[in-house]
Specification:
It is a single chain. This protein folds into two domains: 155 residues, Rossmann fold (3-Layer(aba) Sandwich); 93 residues, ProC C-terminal domain-like (ProC C-terminal domain-like fold), CATH 1.10.3730. By secondary structure, the chain is an alpha/beta fold. The chain has an eight-stranded mixed β-sheet, sandwiched between helices. The chain is elongated, with a radius of gyration of 21 Å. Strand 1, helix 1 and strand 2 form a beta-alpha-beta unit. Helix 6 crosses helix 11 and helix 7 packs across helix 8.
C-alpha cells in the first residue's frame, strides 16, 4: 500500500482523505502537512492521520498530493529539496502546468487533476492527465485516489484540463445559477419562496438522478415534452432566446480564462 502525503489540509484535501480512507486505505499511511495547528488537530482527530508542519516530511511518502494554492507550490518545492525519483506528484492546483511542475520537482512522475466541489460529498467529477514519467502503476494509483471521491476521466492531452474546468470544474456554479433563477421565477409566479426552493431542489435532484441512470438527456427531455404542451412551450422559449448559445459561450469563455491563468 502506497504511503500518501498531502501538502495542504484544506477542504478539498479533507474530502480526498475521507474518500481514500473509506475505500480501505489505512489512516496510519497518510500524512498531512499544514502550517495551521488547528487544521492539523482537526484532521488528526477526524481521520486519525499523522500531521506535521514540516514539508520535508512529505518526501517519505510514495505519493505526494499538492493541495495548496498555485502560488505556494514553488516554496513547497524548495522546502522539499529531496530526490523524488520513483515517487508520484499528484497536483490538484489549478493552472499549474506539467512543465512548471517538472521544472520545480525534476523529471519525476507527475499527475494533474481538476476536481470540483461536489468532491466534498464524495460526488466529484475529475479530469486526470499524467506525464510520460509516470508508470502504469502510478497512473492507476492516481486514478484510485480520485475515484475514492467521485468519478475520474483520464485525458489524452494536458490542454483538455482547461475543457474539464469549463465542464465540471466550474460546472456546479452553472447549476447553482439555474437553481437560483428557477426559485426566483417560481416566487414571481406566486409560490412562497420556501416552496419554490423545495420544488426546485427536488426537481434538480430527480432530473440529475434520472440522467445518471444512463438514458440520453435528449431522450429524457423528449419523454416529458408533449407536442404543444406546457413543457414544449417552455423549451421553445428557451431555445428561441438562445439558451444553447448562452451555455456554449459561457463554457468557452471559462475555458479561455483557464488557459490565460495557466499562462500566468
Amino acid at each position: 500500500m502506497d504511503k500518501i502525503a498531502f501538502i495542504g489540509g484544506g477542504n478539498m484535501a479533507a474530502a480526498i482523505i475521507a474518500g481514500v480512507i473509506a475505500s480501505g486505505r489505512e489512516p496510519s499511511w497518510i500524512t498531512v502537512v499544514d502550517p495551521n495547528a488547528d487544521q492539523r488537530e482537526r484532521l488528526a482527530s477526524e481521520h486519525n492521520v499523522r500531521t506535521t508542519d514540516d514539508v520535508a516530511d512529505a518526501t517519505a511518502a510514495d505519493i505526494i498530493v499538492l493541495a495548496v494554492k498555485p502560488q505556494v507550490i514553488p516554496a513547497v518545492a524548495k522546502q522539499m529539496d529531496a530526490d523524488l525519483s520513483g515517487k508520484l506528484i499528484l497536483s490538484i492546483a489549478a493552472g499549474v502546468t506539467l512543465a512548471n511542475l517538472e521544472n520545480l520537482f525534476g523529471p519525476v512522475a507527475v499527475a494533474r487533476a481538476m476536481p470540483n466541489t461536489p468532491a466534498l460529498l464524495g460526488l466529484g467529477a475529475t479530469g486526470l492527465y499524467v506525464n510520460s514519467y509516470a508508470s502504469e502503476t502510478q497512473h492507476r494509483a492516481a486514478k484510485d485516489i480520485i475515484e475514492a471521491f467521485g468519478i475520474c476521466v483520464t485525458l489524452e492531452r494536458e490542454d483538455l484540463l482547461d475543457a474539464v474546468t469549463a465542464v465540471s470544474g466550474s460546472g456546479p456554479a452553472y447549476y447553482f445559477l439555474m437553481i437560483e433563477e428557477m426559485i426566483r421565477a417560481g416566487t414571481a409566479l406566486g409560490l412562497a419562496p420556501k416552496d419554490a426552493k423545495a420544488l426546485t431542489l427536488q426537481t434538480a435532484l430527480g432530473a440529475a438522478t434520472m440522467a445518471a441512470q444512463g438514458d440520453a438527456p435528449e431522450n429524457l427531455r423528449a419523454h416529458v415534452t408533449s407536442p404543444n404542451g406546457t413543457t414544449h412551450a417552455a423549451i421553445v422559449s428557451m431555445q428561441d432566446n438562445g439558451f444553447g448559445e448562452v451555455v456554449a459561450k459561457a463554457m468557452t469563455t471559462c475555458r479561455d480564462r483557464a488557459v490565460e491563468l495557466g499562462k500566468d
